[in-house]
Amino acid sequence: MIVSVFLALFLPCAGMSAVFIVYLCLLWYATIQQNEQAEHQSRSPAKPVPHQGLSASELEKLPKVSVRELVMGNECAVCLDEIEDGQPARLLPGCNHGFHLKCADTWLSKHSVCPICRAKLDSQFFSASEQNPC
């Protein structure tokens, strides 16, 4: 009788202890694997972010015009202000949209597309123009 009571109490406790030990081993293994992955990712160099805008030399090759030479109007779509007489303007080749010089250069240094129509500026546009008055 005492043996059966002892077995009735001992076997469930031993079984639960075995399950708990297996659970702890699995947690330990998962933690080790997670730490190894984190170390591997920190050792591998991050991909360099490609510069998507235009360089300063490419910006200088784009045409600078006066307000009278703007084809599509004299409102700058970047700052939403009028381009006044005497203010330098930048005319984008291909789409002929015009902007304040500083507004266009700020935008194009981060993006290589027109702010209005999203036309991509091809490399053929970066040839120096002899018609550039400024």
UniProtKB/TrEMBL annotation:
Main location: membrane
Domain of life assignment: Eukaryota
Transmembrane annotation, as ranges: 6-30
Keywords: Membrane, Metal-binding, Transmembrane, Transmembrane helix, Zinc, Zinc-finger
Subcellular location as annotated: Membrane
One CC-aspect GO term: membrane
Family under the similarity heading: Belongs to the RING-type zinc finger family. ATL subfamily.
PANTHER family: E3 UBIQUITIN-PROTEIN LIGASE ATL42, RING-H2 FINGER PROTEIN ATL43
Full protein name: 43kDa postsynaptic protein
Species lineage: Eukaryota, Viridiplantae, Streptophyta, Embryophyta, Tracheophyta
